[in-house]
Amino acid sequence: MGRHVLLIEDEPHIAEAIRFILNRDGWQVSTHANGQDAVARVHATRPDVLILDVMLPGASGFEVLSQLRAQPETANLPVLMLTAKGQGRDREAAERAGADLFITKPFSNAEILASVRSLVTP
Amino acid sequence: MALSGLSGTRLRERRLALGLRQADLARAAGISPSFLNLIEHNRRRITPPVLERLAGALGVDLAELGDGTDRRRIEDLRAAAGMQDSPVEMDRIEDFLGRFPGWADLLRAQHRRLGQLERTVFLLNDRLGHDPHLSAALHEVLSALSSVRSTAAILAETEDIEAEWRARFHANLHADSERLASGAEVLVAYLDGSEERAQDALAAAPQDEVEGWLAARGWHLPELEPGAAGPAALHPAIAALASGAARSLAGDWLRVLEDDAARMPLAEFEPALAGEGGDPIRLARRFGVGVLAVFRRIAFRDGAVEGLVICDASGTPLIRKPLPEFALPRFGAACPLWPLFTALARPMEPVSALADLPGLVPQRFHLRAFCEPDAVAGFDGLVLRRAAMLIAPDPGAGGVGLPIGSSCRICPREACPARREPSILAGRG
């Protein structure tokens, strides 16, 4: 399996921290900060794992994921969604939209690392 | 006139007030003292001939022994029992009310309070789930917190971190902790500022508040009549209503009722009402107003005996002026057989019915309903509908009336084809 992660997250400090953690674990990380052209960015970068925040400017993570799942190239792309803690509806919506995993903010670094690893384990 | 069991209590009070012994009254009425004793303790119902003799012996009018407010109390207690899954002695309600009026009123008050609190919980829950300000403030705090947690963990757990990265994470940590602090301030300010909104939610439903306010004024506002003090005289009373929503609703009603008063001055309206035999359509034509305006004018005039309910197209009541004998349920759970709902489906067509409310003493009413569409946005726009039903007691009418109820749960008409759910009064129709 490849080691390329695309992180779609509009909070620059969170994106920086996640990038650092995954880089140290040997992942190549690309970042993107809005929902609007996120789908195009996925097609352009062809990641092995997508980390997708729910609250994004332009289009929500749910909308982005629904579009990805509707296209054959990305229908099976492993996706980890970042949702806000306590938002039960977000979790349900993430499952409905087709997320493979979701973790809630504020998450621990170990959690995010383990989640990404689990998505590419054959 | 038949009498509900409850009136036994009133009979007893009357006898004691006159200083009569049970045996003397029984003899005068031609019944046994033990039977009178059972009647007075609401254990036996009175037949009309016995009642007449008792009233005669006591020297009182028949009507004095009955009291419409009892019926309202009974309906309230039935509604309270309807909330309960475990069985309640439904056939002893009148006995309970007659013997323990204070406890019964306490139960009624608690039932009302329970309804208010349930609504408050619903509103607060709804607010937490849907308030965009709260949601945005929480999201901001959670984002800053996520960043702080991840960054701090990196700094704490990565021993060989490059100086450049360390400096950057320190800067991020500083910025995010500032952001966290201001996010917390926003949250605190939101919660502090929400005091009034919380009070709004904790008050009775705004509609209940306005109705309570109007009821306390006898459903009549003489201040709004032409030449009187005007709506400004009512503003202090409106300002004293607990919730902002109720104050706003009351203000809307003032404007509507003031307009009704101006277009149908009492000096002309009262004689016209008598002259037209109370016919709202004729009155509407005569004054050049809508039928709903006439309904309001009839029900909100001084000493009016008519009740009124106005609803929107969803059937949700907008205002309810109940009669003691004709309870108007809350939250739109009314009997679907009411002419009000027939009118809603037949705009601009008068719907009139003589209707019977069930009960130990069935009550006859003349119900007149009318629905007015309002093309608020012109010919091609939205059309709103409002329907109203004028409720007039009509004890004189014979025959069989339209068999209506208050709401299914407390209606004893077991076999009613319009029934939505089983009644807790099964077998008592």
Automatic annotation (TrEMBL), chain A:
Keywords, sorted A to Z? DNA-binding, Phosphoprotein, Transcription, Transcription regulation, Two-component regulatory system
Family matches, as InterPro entries: Bact_response_regulator (IPR050595), CheY-like_superfamily (IPR011006), Sig_transdc_resp-reg_receiver (IPR001789)
Where is each Response regulatory domain found?
4-120
Report the domain of life of the source organism: Bacteria
Query: In its UniProt record, which GO terms are filed under biological process?
Result: phosphorelay signal transduction system
Quick check: keyword Phosphoprotein in the entry?
yes
Q: Which residues carry this modification: 4-aspartylphosphate?
A: 53
The UniProt entry's coiled-coil ranges are none
One annotated GO molecular function is: DNA binding
**Annotated PROSITE patterns:** RESPONSE_REGULATORY (PS50110)
The record's annotation in Pfam families points to: Response_reg (PF00072)
Identify this protein by name: Response regulator
Q: Which organism does this sequence originate in?
A: Szabonella alba
What lineage is this protein's organism placed in? Bacteria, Pseudomonadati, Pseudomonadota, Alphaproteobacteria, Rhodobacterales
UniProtKB/TrEMBL annotation, chain B:
The GO terms describing molecular function are:
DNA binding; DNA-binding transcription factor activity
Entry's PROSITE patterns? Answer: HTH_CROC1 (PS50943)
Under SMART domains, the record lists: HTH_XRE
Can you cite an annotated GO cellular component? Answer: cytosol
- The parts of the chain that form a coiled coil are none
Keywords of this protein's UniProt record, alphabetized? Answer: DNA-binding, Transcription, Transcription regulation
Q: Which residues cross the membrane?
A: none
Keyword Transcription present in the record's keywords: the answer is yes
Q: Which residues form the signal peptide?
A: none
Annotated HTH cro/C1-type domain ranges read 11-65
Q: What is this protein called?
A: Helix-turn-helix domain-containing protein
